[in-house]
Amino acid sequence: MWPAFEQALTRHHELETMLGDPTVIGDRMRYTKLAKEHGALQKTIKPYVEFLAVTDEMQQAKSMLDGADAEIQAMVAAELKTLGARESELRTRLEDILLMGGEDYTSIIMEIRAGTGGDEAAIFAGDLLRMYTTYARDHGWKVEEISFSPGEQGGYKEIILSVSGDDAFQHLKYESGGHRVQRVPKTETQGRIHTSAATVAVMPEPDEVEVDIKDSDIEWERMRAGGAGGQHVNKTESAVRIWYRKGTPDEMEVKCQDERSQSKNYDRAMRVLRSRVFEYQREKLHKARSAQRKSLIGSGDRGERIRTYNFPQNRVTDHRINESWYQLDAIVLGGLSGVIDALRAFDRKQRLEGGNLPSSDAG
User: Fold this and answer.
1) Which has the higher per-residue pLDDT, 138 or 203?
2) Mean pLDDT of the residues in the chain
């Protein structure tokens, strides 16, 4: 038995009954909240229900071995081998769900900022954007640019995007931190290698039910958009800046100006703000497992790094697990799977060794 999944299964049945109750249907906020919980549990219990079905099939198959002739025993043995492989796969999946501790978000906000290195840092931030965008789309995830500030020589001083799809957070959460690049910039005339940096922050994207920001919690203003964009940005006050001051040690500020519509800029800025508030609340609850957001983002200084991209050696090194890959050219084109798989395996091992899998759920 897996008590955590049995509880989830029981709760799932309760929610199905509640969602059919006319009084719940008539309460839009309550119905939305319960429907969201039901949907999240549906994803959690699906592998557990299949696990139960597979183990039941295995028991039935084993019962057929007694007194069976050689031909039947061979057929049952082959079936048990197939079922055993699937049972092992599902068991690992269930362990991973428990180890995630509820961190199974399907949409994230990713912020990429140029750090030390001037124009080259902005160009590198653009390279990281392309790397993550390609990786995400190869996994069938949806990528949406929310806000950006272009660099003077290309790339971005800052870009904020949304990535949504199954397991998006589980793959990309390891990218938070400082990224360092070593290469000869296009603007370098003497062939000298420069070192530049960019920072990445990955935050779950909650909805309005998970993070309720009231009008009284914020202040906002409309203004004219700045930067390139033709006559529109000079004549229309469509840009939006929002300040959030409730329950956080530092004031949170979000600006969005990339849409012509003020309402769309406001909605996009609120999405980013909700993610930042949610991340702040989440980290307060999990201080032992995750650093504060400022530590995750870093200052953009070369010394605060989680990964180095060395172009002359075609090497990518992740300093958290002390592992290097000599396929930088493929990795920056979106071939991140080897790096992220290694980080996920390391994280899983650390969590198992740390006793984060409840012993009573061993199956």
Assistant:
1) 138
2) 81
Q: pLDDT for 230-286, tens place per residue?
A: 444 444 567 877 777 676 656 677 878 766 677 788 777 877 887 877 777 666 655
List the structure tokens of 134. 């390609």
Q: How far is CA 191 from CA 43, 78, 181, 309, in A?
A: 53, 62, 15, 17
Provide the token pair at 24: 């719940």
DSSP state of 174: G
Angle at 351 between CA 96 and CA 91, to 5 degrees: 25
pLDDT (average), residues 210-225: 68
Q: Indicate whether this model's pTM tops 0.85.
A: no
Burial class (CB in 10 A: 0-12, 13-18, 19+), 162: buried
Distance between start and end Cα atoms, the chain: 5
**Entry field: residues in the chain:** 363
The CA-CA-CA angle for residues 60, 61, 67, to 5°, reads: 105
Among 300, 318, 332, which Cα is nearest to 114's?
Answer: 300
Long-range contacts (CB closer than 8 Å, 24 or more residues apart) made by 318-324: 318/342, 318/343, 320/346, 321/346
Instruction: Band the pLDDT of 97: cuts 50, 70, 90.
Output: confident
Reading the block at residue 10, the tokens are: 């029981």
Strand runs labelled E in the chain: 107-114, 142-150, 156-164, 177-183, 194-204, 218-223, 239-244, 252-256, 307-310, 315-318, 323-325
- The two structure tokens encoding residue 156: 């971005």
Total Cβ atoms within 10 A of residue 150: 15
Please answer whether residues 197 and 178 qualify as being in contact, where contact means their C-beta atoms are separated by less than 8 angstroms. Answer: yes
Q: Which residue has the tokens 């360092």?
A: 180
